[in-house]
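Page 47, continued from p. 46.
Same chain as before, 191 aa.
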Amino acid sequence: ESSEYQFVFSAIQGGELNLRSVLQLQEVQLYGVAPSASVAGGFRLPLQKPGLHIEPIEIARAFNPGGRAPNDWQTAAASIDGDFTSKASKWVDLEFGRSKTSTLQLFLHSPRLVVAYSLHTANDNRARDPVSWTFSRRDRAERTWQLVHSVEGVESPIKRFSSYGIIGFQSFLGNLTLHHQLHLPHHQGSP
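Result:
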């Protein structure tokens, strides 16, 4: 469990980075285990124990340390505002080409175990979509970042305002932690 998570994006669909390379995302969602199998909106991942469901986790704040947005409405906060379809509500990092990475730090209201996430493309310019990244959590005791999952060289969705799919990395088969990538259908506006 942690209340701090981060993505570090290191490559975009457009390939070769230059000083003008830009990264963008419409929305980011994190998922945790639902407290009850009867939770409305929860759903079951393959390989989970029967009756175990996941649900979206509310994210309190998002930051892009070292990044720069083109305006006040395309900051990291736009990546967690729940708006999946407005071109004005995407997160854009203009510093991606210069720094060669872009960090999106996410802060939860309280510690939760994140078991899956989804990323959603913005309205335009597929070349700006991330294709390689790491996902980490901050260890509460040691205050260090611990790698949870990494993705390298995936193809971003061609259709705009689309999900990459729900990417799960922990099954709940007893004490066994099985790292894998799952792609489940996404229903527009809700998981």
